Amino acid sequence: MRALVTGGTGRVGSAVAARLQAGGWSVLAAGRARGDLAVAAEARSLVAAAVDELGGLDLLVNGAAEGFIPRAVAEVTEADWDAAFGATSKGTFFVTQAAAPHLRASRGVVVNIEDVAAYQPWPSFAAHCAAKAAQAMLTRVLARALAPEIRVCGVAPGPVAVAADQEDRRAAETLLGRVGSPEDVAAAVVYMAGASFVTGTSLVVDGGRLLQSKALPPS
Would you say residue 200 has pLDDT above 60? Predict the structure, then answer.
């Protein structure tokens, strides 16, 4: 079993890679040093390198993202917008496009690491919300386009990689009264990778945050 994890050196991505490795997967955890996924040619080069190193591909986890920076709507620049959409939605599309022939051969799986921001309006994170919403739609579009050989699923984390001084406030936003962890996301990815009758849908891993009317956007 062979997996490429983009964003694989971040807190969530590294947890996903470690969980897969513990389950016997051969994993290439790719961080920024392996290429700029906002550039289609570099996205294709990363997939080619992963296939060469791993001997094929059974799972792609699109976890790369940029641009999670608070900005008032009036202050968002073109550079902010391009950063948010670059690795998150553009990268997801072109990495998946390049990986599709290899995943089709193995009847493999794509798991997109989305965000509850795709489903909630956060005024201070307009570009991030829009980019994650685009990625969430790609989960559904690609599931239709690549079926039946390839399943495409999403995992949408809530507060799982939270700074220590933010934990109490973010925990109060959830129904469970606590924040999650990157390992919670990793467990969801492993589930989706093995859920052979699931495609075109997303698993929300947020402790019930989306159900809390009092939940505020992150500051």
Answer: yes
CATH of 2-211, one of 3.40.630.30, 3.40.50.720, 1.25.40.10, 3.40.50.1010: 3.40.50.720
Residue 4 pairs with which residues in a beta bridge? 28, 60
What's the mean pLDDT in 162-167? 81
* Distances in whole angstroms, Cα of residue 131 to Cα of each of 66, 83, 153, 173: 10, 10, 17, 23
- Which among 141, 156, 160 has a CA at the least distance from the CA of 199? 141
Distance CA 128, CA 150 (A): 27
pLDDT bracket for residue 169 (50, 70, 90): confident
pTM of the model: 0.93
C-alpha span between 191 and 47 (Å, rounded): 23
Check residue 212 and give its pLDDT. 79
Contact indicator for 139, 183 with CB cutoff of 8 Å = no
pLDDT tens column, 37-78: 999 999 999 999 999 999 999 999 999 998 888 899 999 999
